[in-house]
Each structure stands twice: as structure tokens, then as C-alpha cells.
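job 3f2a | input accepted
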Amino acid sequence: MSDKSSILHQLRIALKCLVVLTLITGIIYPLIVTGIAQIVFKYQANGSLIAENGKRFGSELIGQPFSDPKYFWGRLSATTPYPYNASASSGSNYGPLNPELDEEVRARIKVLKTVDPDNMKPIPVDLVTHSASGLDPHISIAAATYQVHRVAFVRGLSEEIVNALVTRYTEGRQFGFLGEPRVNVLKLNLALDQLPGQTGSSKM
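job 3f2a | predicted structure (204 res):
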């Protein structure tokens, strides 16, 4: 076999391999995986979207920027060009000695004190700092408990009722041992709006 024939033979083999692998890895495999996901994990595969009566409120995996005092607030988000931008997950990357971090923490503390001046509890750290991803949908139990007084007062509810909701929407450690117990902010706020006599804002 001449060198030219050998090269053409190898080229044909390479092209056949390219076509076969493209079909397997680019079409067949993704279709199989997507099909299995839609059958076995349909909710998760479609973004874990929270919907009621055909209306979608968001994903339980991505936080939202709540600022109305009648809602629980989540962690700060440093994503750009707007908070909780799922296409630009990022943290602020401020070191502990960075003066800008100190300024942001002080500004957040001032806001929390302004909307709830009678609250003398220590402010949990996750209410005044950014999450690493900028998308964290959860807050700590301490962060939720700190906000109970404000939310209950603004909504005209007893703290017992609001605390009961916090307990109801507290999620345990993943697999029973990873991470810490946490509260999903969106789920908790939606539950608040569903209480008798309560209505959601236009945002919700």
C-alpha cells in the first residue's frame, strides 16, 4: 500500500470514528440521559421550579432579592449586573481586612436595625455577608429566627405562628450529616402569603 493510500485509509477510519462518536456522545447519550432525568427526576431536571396554579415563583435552588419588611430576607448577593443572577454566579471576594467588606456589613446592619429597631438579638453573620455563589436560597435557622419579630409585627401575626412556619420549612443536613440545618427563604415567604388574611406583593 502506497503512502497516499495509507493516509487516505487512515483518514477514512478517523472520519468514521468522528461520525460514530459524535452520534453517541453528541446525540444518543444526551437524549438517553435527558429522557431518564425527565422520567425519574422530572422536578429537579426542570430546575426545581416552585409553581402554584400555573404560576411560577422561582426555583428553590436560587435565591431572590426580598426587601419588603413583611418577608424574610435572604443572604446578600454580589452577582452582576443584578443580585441573584444565575448566569453570573460569584462572590464578592472581599478579604476579612478589606474596608469595603466592613462598609457593606455596617450598611446591612443599619438597614436591619432601621426596619426592626426593637430587636435586640445579635444579628447572624449570614444576614450581613454575601454567599460564595451569590445564589444561596437558604438562610440559617438563626437568621430566620432573628427576622421573626419583624415579619410578625408587619403582618400583624403572632410570633408563635411565624416561628411555626420557620420550623416547618427548616431543612435538615444533606444526607443527614452534610452542612447545617437551613431555611428556604422563597418557600417560607410563599407560605406566609398563604396564611389567612395575608396577601403577596406584586413581586411574588
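job 3f2a | Residues 3-43 form one domain.
job 3f2a | closed
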